[in-house]
Amino acid sequence: MNRAYHRRVAFGSELGSATSGDLLGTSTVLVIPVGSTEQHGPHLPLDTDTRIAEAVAREVAARSQDAAGDALRYLVAPPVAYGASGEHEAFAGTISIGTEALRHLLVEYGRSASRWAGRLAFVNGHGGNVAALTAAVELLRSEGRDAAWCSCTVRGGDAHAGHTETSVLLHISPAEVRFERSRPGNCAPLVDLMPSMRRGGVAAVSEVGVLGDPTTATATAGKHLFEEMVTGGVDRIARWEPRADGMLT
């Protein structure tokens, strides 16, 4: 069992297990994981993006709480587990709600949560959600709500179900990785694949649904990649300097 993922932050720091009374008289930063349910090759679970976003959000909240002490309360919300994943719909198991539906969901989520939470930090685990997050957070901010978002990114990571995501899953959820099924996919730069993907989705460029090489993944690499995601999130939330599109830099 990996302590980084399964670590439970202090009592009352997960929204799902808190009571309304727990939130009285507190200044709350609500950290919301946003993921997807989509194919991740023959070896990774469909909830890979959600798992990563939730694990990062929990650790970011725990470290931010340690730094804030009693000045703020960081609460981790149950994840938004469905996203804009139309590029993966040629593969079984994918469930996409599309950009517009996700945008509406995030806007109404933010409007409701802002009635009691002072600040909203969306932590995104799926690239296809960026357009919806940008539009939703821009609108929330224009309405005077203190919302922003950041992504679970690393420098030099591959695009989908390759070395990066497989390594992180080997670190946070090793029992869910069918490593013996892993196969290299299309390792070309994403910018070169985008024209074909816009026409035919991931299936147009990768028969196995993988963009990268998962066979090189290791739990040790995953530990370092996960740490990079977490420290990046902690730094961005601590600075809280949203750009015009609401993304934390």
TrEMBL record:
<dbReference type="InterPro" id="IPR023871">
    <property type="entry name" value="MftE"/>
</dbReference>
<dbReference type="InterPro" id="IPR003785">
    <property type="entry name" value="Creatininase/forma_Hydrolase"/>
</dbReference>
<dbReference type="Pfam" id="PF02633">
    <property type="entry name" value="Creatininase"/>
</dbReference>
<keyword id="KW-0479">Metal-binding</keyword>
<keyword id="KW-0378">Hydrolase</keyword>
<keyword id="KW-0862">Zinc</keyword>
<comment type="similarity">
    <text>Belongs to the creatininase superfamily.</text>
</comment>
<protein>
    <submittedName>
        <fullName>Mycofactocin biosynthesis peptidyl-dipeptidase MftE</fullName>
    </submittedName>
</protein>
<dbReference type="InterPro" id="IPR024087">
    <property type="entry name" value="Creatininase-like_sf"/>
</dbReference>
